[in-house]
Each structure stands twice: as C-alpha cells, then as structure tokens.
Specification:
InterPro entries: DNA-bd_HTH_TetR-type_CS (IPR023772), Homeodomain-like_sf (IPR009057), HTH_TetR (IPR001647), Tet_transcr_reg_TetR-rel_C_sf (IPR036271), TetR_C (IPR011075). This protein is mostly helical. 74% of the residues lie in helices and 0% in strands. It is elongated.
C-alpha cells in the first residue's frame, strides 16, 4: 500500500493521521520509544492538535489499539476465507490469509496491539486492556467456525475459545520471532506449522491409527 505524505490533499483529519502515525511508528520502534513530537511530525499536526484529541500519550495508545481493531476487523470481515462452505476450510483459509499478508518489512505486517502489549501490560493498564480487547476480540471471530468444525469431526477435549486463543498465541509469537531475527521467513514458517497442526488435529480418527 502506498504511504501518504503530509502534503496529500486527502490525508484525513488530525486525529486519524495521529492514529495512523502511531500504527506505523510504534510497530517500527515500540511505544516507549515513540514521542509525542515524533507522532506530530509524522502526522503533520501541531502538539496543540495532539492534546486537543488526546489528553496524554497513554490515551493515544488506547485509541490506537481501538483504531487497529476497527481497521483490521474490517479487513478480516471482508476476507475471502469466509466464502468456503465447510467450517474447517474457512479456518484453514484464515491461516492461509494470515500467511499471505506477511509481506514487506517486519514492521509492516506485525501486530500493533501485540507490540504494545509486551511493553504496556504493567506500566499502562489502560493500554493493556485495550490491546487485550483487540486480540481476544479477533480470536472470538474464529470460535463459531472452530466449534462447527469440532462438532462435524467429533473433535473434543478442549473448547473452541481455547483453540482460537492458541492460534493467536502462535501468530503473535511468530511476529516476535520475525522481529528478533529481522526475518519475515520465521513468521511464515510458524504459520505453516500452525496449519499443519490444525490439519492433524482435525484429521479423521481412522486416518490417525
């Protein structure tokens, strides 16, 4: 996706530009290292405009997590994996979709709320709560398909919610590995392992004996 510059005529209102600046900068360097001045420069707004919309940097962090949920939620809601008639096929296609959007530099595909959670879970409880709502809210969108796949294939011993959470744990962990090594291939490899795990988990019992 092409990046807008501060001279673009349709760059949006100041609040939106600050949220988009936070999305990009925090994913690149973390929340603690991101200053209000840096956000203002990237968004092309004054510091007065920043504090008009956000009483503090922490408030910006909370709003950024919510904005992330809204924008990524729309992306996933429109994604083609929903078109498959079989619930397991939808789950596997979701994993494929997650793999397909791992592209560009590490900061371009990693998760904003995952990045902020590791920094803010103790120092900024409000940001942690907003990030948790985003992560678990996204996991919840998978639960109906997982439950239907489990029922159809008589898979038991755990809940759909716990499996959805595990899938998010793998994805977030994949992003951490990619950042640690500055290597997107580690993220795609982890997603491939996740798909193999799901295929084994849902394999008909007679095929596993």
């Amino acid at each position: 996706m092409a990046r807008r510059t501060n001279t673009d005529p349709d760059k949006g209102d100041a609040r939106t530009r600050l949220l988009e600046a936070a999305r990009d900068i925090v994913r690149r360097q973390g929340f603690a290292a991101t200053s209000v001045d840096q956000l203002c420069r990237a968004a092309g707004v004054t510091k007065g405009a920043f504090f008009h919309h956000f009483p503090s940097k922490e408030a910006l962090g909370v709003a950024a997590a919510q904005h992330w949920s809204e924008t990524t939620g729309a992306l996933f809601a429109q994604a083609p994996y929903h078109d498959h008639p079989d619930p397991l096929d939808r789950v596997l296609a979701y994993v494929d979709f997650r793999r397909d959007i791992i592209a560009g530099g590490v900061e371009e595909f990693t998760c904003l709320v995952g990045t902020m959670t590791s920094e803010a879970y103790h120092a900024h409880p409000a940001i942690r709560a907003a990030c948790a709502e985003s992560i678990f809210g996204h996991a919840a969108t998978l639960e109906a398909d997982l439950a239907a796949a489990m029922a159809a294939r008589k898979v038991a011993g755990f809940t759909a919610a716990s499996l959805a959470a595990h899938m998010q744990a793998v994805l977030q962990g994949a992003f951490v590995l990619a950042k640690a090594a500055d290597d997107p291939a580690l993220a795609t490899g982890s997603v491939d392992h996740l798909k193999r795990y799901l295929m084994l988990l849902f394999k008909p019992r007679e095929e596993t004996t």
